[in-house]
Amino acid sequence: MSRSQELRSMLRESSEINIVCHNNPDPDCLASALALGRIAATAGIDERHIFYSGDISHQQNRAFVNLLNVDLKPFDTAEVEDRPPGSLLAFVDHSIPGRNNTVPPDTPVDIVIDHHPAEDIDARFVDHREELGAAATILTEYVRALEVDLDSDLATALLFAIRSDTLDFLRGATTVEYEAAGYLHDHGDPELLRKLSSPSVSGGTIDAISTAIDNRRTNGAVLISHVGRTTERDSLPQAVDYLVRLEGVKTAIVFGLVKESIQISARSPDPRVHVGEVLNNAFGDVGSGGGHHDVAGGEIPLGLFADYVTDDGQLLDIIEQVITTRLVAELNLSAEADGSELT
């Protein structure tokens, strides 16, 4: 039995599916959730729910939800704690309860479909392919194998997700992504794809990127910066995507204060640096961090910082020193950067 057939068999034995997106879901996660919901519908499941935690703040993510009319609901722990018999819990584009989601740790999970590096994944059905560039690639394979009706909205969602997660096939794309995109292209809506690809940018995002540019410090081929406090969480990956293009920079890391946590985003086309491992090693004891060798993210609760410092300026100074010191140590950098100390 193929994995797609195995999945459909499990779905046919169930009456409800709760698909949980990771915190602040991106197009890959959202499109994968849509596709899994569509597959569940063809298997006879009428009760289908897509949940998320955090915020949908990135302009592309907001456009995705609005233009495709994605029915999302804020996640509540009661959704997984009080599930009736026959109800399934599914993760797409992430895999571990409590990591990049607000599902309580040790919660039993039924379905995991993911492509991010992870260990100790525990679920009844697992399709975990780190070698692929997008979770949407896996869901496209299922849709095709199971002959699910592929309307233009779903095709466009999956195609945009693959393009987005691979930076238009420049990052982590495999022949499987190209094959999936070729299949989806014939069913997609070019005008909708154009709208998804070029949404307007908020002033808060521009301000955060500008702050990151002003605060940048380089040490050899490594750039570290911060956006200060921002309500635009997704300005961090946008800032780091911009700064890693700076001449001479091979690794860029940007952090910032978002609500009650420190968010971190990292990029590194340098094959000698695995930024997922860098963030995990540097901050795994105080928060979470990880990802691919070239793309990674992390989150640290403010905790004691917020308890003892109420002024944002002082708080940011302390956080900048602590974050930078850990990164300098993990990356084996010297203490000097463009004439200014990083530590």
UniProtKB/TrEMBL annotation:
Q: Where's the DHHA1 domain?
A: 220-302
- Pfam families xref list: DHH (PF01368), DHHA1 (PF02272)
The DDH domain sits at: 17-162
Concerning InterPro entries, the annotation shows:
DDH_dom, DHH_sf, DHHA1_dom, Oligoribo/pAp-PDE_c-di-AMP_PDE
Q: What class of enzyme is it?
A: hydrolase
Q: Name the Gene Ontology molecular function terms of this record.
A: 3'(2'),5'-bisphosphate nucleotidase activity
Superkingdom to which the source organism belongs: Archaea
Keyword set for this entry?
Hydrolase
Give the Enzyme Commission number. 3.1.3.7
Output this protein's name: Bifunctional oligoribonuclease/PAP phosphatase NrnA
Tell me which species this is from: Halorubrum ejinorense
